[in-house]
Write a structure and sequence with these properties.
The chain is of the alpha/beta class and about 375 residues long. The chain has one domain: Aldolase class I (TIM Barrel, Alpha-Beta Barrel). Helix content is about 40%, strand content about 10%. The strands form three sheets. Strands 4-11-10-9-8-7-6-5 form an eight-stranded parallel sheet. A two-stranded antiparallel ribbon has the order 1-12. Helix 4 runs parallel beside helix 14. It is globular. This is Alpha-hydroxy-acid oxidizing protein. Belongs to the FMN-dependent alpha-hydroxy acid dehydrogenase family.
């Protein structure tokens, strides 16, 4: 279904997705670990920043464009990796890749997603695809996965480093819901044996150095929060750091990634990209991250909601709305380009209450039917 003609706000995407998703799947997509303090903290961090705009700066012409690893982006955003996209739309990663290509943004393809990486790459040869890896084997296995990414024409490789164990997601536990049982992991020979392994739990900086030695593709480490780990990532050959607390789904009471942008930027310098995710729902959210020093913001839960609302057309609509919102924010902040966003445009404030469906869906469970 083409949603572009009848959806004008991302609030409507959330409302439509909630009506269409089964309660257990809604909880899987929107929930977090344990008390969900980390999940709610992501949104609180964004809402705790207010703008201090400039005026009379001639913003008649504006651009939301930027670049990542030398590749142009129409919007400083990307589709974050989600392993169970087919729970929200039967096309799964293929729908996200098609929408990202149409919108001119990168799409992270999780090794847990469907269809297989090679199928997505064949169907969308012009999409900027980045393979996200969970380690589920030894170094020979990792070498094979890197070879697949190179053969598929991926623009970069992303190693997730914040998942030594699986977070205790109490909504899923209460619902007796397992995404591993619900979705076929087609990128693995043993399609059901994809739970966290010893290799993932035992990852160290030596493994990062080994991965770096396998390929000339840009290497991204996802799940960085501590500035010392950002520094070590750069020291071990990472081309970018991806700040994330896994959407509040791993360690509860974890700091918001947004609050670590400035420290990470100071740790790795001005040249390497700093990616970030965690609660991004609007163009103004993206503007705040960029003003703090981020290169681009990742869309996880919002991507899943857009898929549920309208498949690939839903994701295209969502990205189009974010671009319009960001362009509008630039004008009202007195900026012509995203490069002009800086911390001087921000002030810390007390977050207020919002009646927005988009801002309040976090922390809400789907009523059981």
């Amino acid at each position: 279904m083409d949603t572009s003609a009848d959806i004008f706000t991302n609030d409507e995407i959330v409302t439509r997705a909630r009506a269409r998703l089964a309660p257990a799947v809604w909880d899987y997509l929107t929930g977090g670990a344990e008390s969900e303090r980390a999940l709610c903290g992501n949104r609180l961090a964004l809402d705790s920043l207010a703008f201090l705009p400039r005026v009379l700066r001639d913003v008649a012409e504006r651009s939301t464009a930027t670049s990542l690893f030398g590749r142009s982006m129409a919007l400083p955003a990307f589709l974050a990796p989600i392993g169970s996209l087919s729970l929200f739309d039967k096309e799964g990663a293929l729908a996200s890749a098609a929408a990202a290509r149409a919108a001119g943004v990168p799409c992270f393809i999780s090794i847990m997603s469907q269809p297989a990486l090679e199928e997505v790459a064949r169907a969308e040869p012009d999409a900027v695809l980045i393979l996200q890896i969970y380690v589920r084997g030894d170094r020979d296995w990792l070498r094979q996965v890197v070879g697949r990414a190179e053969a598929a024409g991926c623009a970069a490789i992303c190693l997730t480093v914040d998942s030594a164990v699986y977070g205790r997601r109490e909504r899923d536990l209460r619902n007796r819901f397992s995404s591993a049982a619900a979705v076929d992991r087609v990128n693995f020979d043993d399609r059901k044996s994809v739970q966290i392994t010893t290799e993932q739990a035992a990852l160290s900086w030596d493994d990062v150095a080994f991965l770096r030695s396998l390929t000339r593709l840009p290497l991204i480490l996802k799940g960085i929060l501590h500035p010392e780990d950002a520094r070590l990532a750069a020291e071990h050959g990472a081309d970018a750091v991806y700040l994330s607390n896994h959407g509040g789904r791993q360690l509860d009471h974890c700091v918001p990634a947004l609050d670590q942008i400035e420290a990470a930027r100071a740790a790795i310098g001005a040249d390497k990209p700093v990616l970030v995710d965690g609660g991004f729902l609007r163009g103004t959210d993206i503007a705040k991250a960029l003003a703090l020093g981020a290169t681009a913001a990742g869309l996880g839960k919002l991507q899943g909601l857009a898929l549920a609302a309208g498949g690939r057309a839903g994701v295209e609509t969502m990205l189009s709305l974010l671009k319009a919102e960001l362009s509008n924010a630039l004008a009202l902040l007195g900026c012509r380009t995203v490069a002009q966003l800086d911390a001087a445009l921000l002030r810390r404030t007390q977050p207020g209450l919002s009646s927005s469906v988009l801002s309040t869906f976090i922390g809400q469970r789907q009523p059981q039917t």
